[in-house]
């Protein structure tokens, strides 16, 4: 769909006011939202708050090295087209400007109608690039987002967690993994149809999403289990978050048509320790151990990972194995 030229901000830069006006006039014919500047300093300040879709510039615009100035504009080129207009028609100049990221090079003096055609062409190319980026973003979301809950799926969660742990280590800030399991969720599918079970999971996903911040990473771990990565949150904040989330679900009556049910959550969490180097899977395993403890203590509660508890459990398992081995040998 053709875009309104009024919504096309274009910045034109030239040190000569007369030459600048020769470029601005045909752009105004077309109805573009144009700004023209002759000052290098003013242009630098202007770009801090005005985001043009296109910059048209003469490399001689600055008293310094013009090619160096073009190079300084490369940070804008993801969303902005760059057209160079110059009286210098040398192959070296044209090649260097195009290699620095210019979309087109127009030799002046130029024919206004050709000039406008080149501008339109580059704006169409910019639009196509923007649309492709949007499509790629949607495809990425399809790959990473769970259809039912709208949360992340487990496809990329360990990669994201690894990044957060590394960032937390660098800035000496904690990273917490929260594991969540729906208590007695089997009763939902046993006493109702699977569509109602999907509805409940979808609603819980909405609750989790609305309870987390933009910097947090909420995910569906699988089935009726969820995982949340909390960054830069102290222990008291983690406990408050988990308890608030548990209460929100406990207080809700899930209703769809004639089907209705109340459910609770069991929650376990584990946080990084500043003196310890830990892998993402190990942090998830610890949060899962805490979730296991919450289930064992009666469900519908929040439990933090306790290394001493895990040690005791390992001793119990070891003792049980020894007893089994003795009985097997004497059998």
Structural summary, described in words:
The protein has helices at residues 17-30, 40-46, 66-72, 91-99, 112-144, 157-170, 186-191, 194-211, 235-250, 280-296, 307-330, and strands at 9-13, 33-37, 54-57, 81-86, 104-107, 175-182, 217-222, 225-231, 253-256, 259-262, 265-271, 302-304. The protein is elongated, with a radius of gyration of 30 Å. By secondary structure, it is α/β, with parallel strands linked by helices. A 5-stranded parallel β-sheet has the order 2-1-3-4-5, sandwiched between helices. β4, α4 and β5 form a beta-alpha-beta unit. The mean pLDDT is 88. The termini are far apart. The chain folds into 2 domains: 5-142, 3-Layer(aba) Sandwich (Rossmann fold), CATH 3.40.50.2300; 157-330, Alpha-Beta Plaits (2-Layer Sandwich). 50% of the residues lie in helices and 19% in strands.
Using brief descriptors, characterize the structure shown.
331 residues, alpha/beta, Rossmann fold, Alpha-Beta Plaits, 2 domains, five-stranded parallel β-sheet, five-stranded mixed β-sheet, 12 strands, 50% helix
Task: Give the topology, please.
Blueprint lengths: L8 E5 L3 H14 L2 E5 L2 H7 L7 E4 L8 H7 L8 E6 L4 H9 L4 E4 L4 H33 L12 H14 L4 E8 L3 H6 L2 H18 L5 E6 L2 E7 L3 H16 L2 E4 L2 E4 L2 E7 L8 H17 L5 E3 L2 H24 L1
Parallel strand pairs: 1-2, 1-3, 3-4, 4-5, 11-12
Antiparallel strand pairs: 6-8, 6-11, 7-8, 9-10
**Compute the gyration radius: what is it?**
30 Å
Quaternary assembly: single chain
Q: State the shape.
A: elongated
State the helix count: 11
Fraction of residues in β-strands: 15-25%
Structural class: alpha/beta
Spatial order of the strands forming the largest sheet: 2-1-3-4-5
What letter string, H or E per element, gives the SSE order?
EHEHEHEHEHHEHHEEHEEEHEH
Q: What is the CATH architecture assignment of the largest domain?
A: 2-Layer Sandwich
Domain module count: 2
The H-level CATH homologous superfamily of the largest domain, spelled out, is Reverse transcriptase/Diguanylate cyclase domain
Stretches where pLDDT falls below 50 for ≥5 residues? none
Mean pLDDT: 88
Distance between the first and last residues' Cα: 82 Å
Instruction: Tell me the total number of β-strands.
Output: 12
What CATH calls the topology of the largest domain is: Alpha-Beta Plaits
């Amino acid at each position: 769909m053709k875009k309104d030229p009024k919504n096309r901000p274009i910045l034109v830069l030239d040190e000569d006011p007369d030459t600048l006006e020769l470029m601005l006039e045909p752009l105004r014919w077309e109805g573009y939202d144009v700004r023209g500047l002759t000052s290098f300093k003013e242009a630098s300040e202007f770009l801090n708050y005005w985001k043009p879709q296109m910059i048209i510039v003469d490399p001689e615009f600055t008293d310094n090295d013009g090619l160096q100035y073009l190079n300084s504009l490369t940070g804008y080129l993801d969303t902005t087209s760059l057209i160079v207009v110059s009286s210098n028609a040398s192959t070296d100049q044209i090649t260097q400007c195009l290699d620095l990221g210019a979309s087109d090079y127009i030799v002046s003096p130029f024919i206004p109608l050709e000039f406008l055609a080149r501008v339109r062409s580059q704006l169409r190319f910019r639009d196509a690039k923007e649309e492709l980026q949007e499509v790629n973003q949607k495809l990425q979301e399809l790959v990473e987002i769970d259809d039912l809950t709208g949360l992340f799926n487990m496809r990329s969660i360990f990669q994201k967690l690894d990044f957060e742990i590394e960032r937390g280590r660098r800035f000496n800030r904690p990273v917490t993994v929260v594991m969540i399991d729906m208590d007695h969720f089997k009763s939902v599918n046993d006493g109702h149809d699977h569509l109602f079970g999907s509805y409940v999971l979808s609603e819980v996903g909405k609750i989790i999403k609305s309870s987390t911040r933009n910097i947090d990473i909420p995910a569906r771990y699988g089935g009726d289990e969820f995982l949340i990565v909390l960054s830069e949150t102290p222990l008291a904040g983690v406990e408050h978050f988990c308890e608030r989330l548990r209460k929100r679900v406990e207080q809700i009556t899930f209703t769809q048509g004639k089907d209705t049910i109340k459910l609770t959550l069991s929650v376990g969490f584990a946080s990084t320790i500043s003196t310890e180097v830990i892998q993402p899977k190990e942090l998830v395993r610890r949060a899962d151990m805490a979730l296991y403890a919450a289930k064992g203590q009666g469900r519908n509660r929040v439990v933090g990972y306790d290394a001493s508890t895990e040690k005791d459990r390992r001793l119990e398992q070891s003792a049980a194995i020894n007893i089994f081995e003795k009985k097997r040998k004497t059998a």
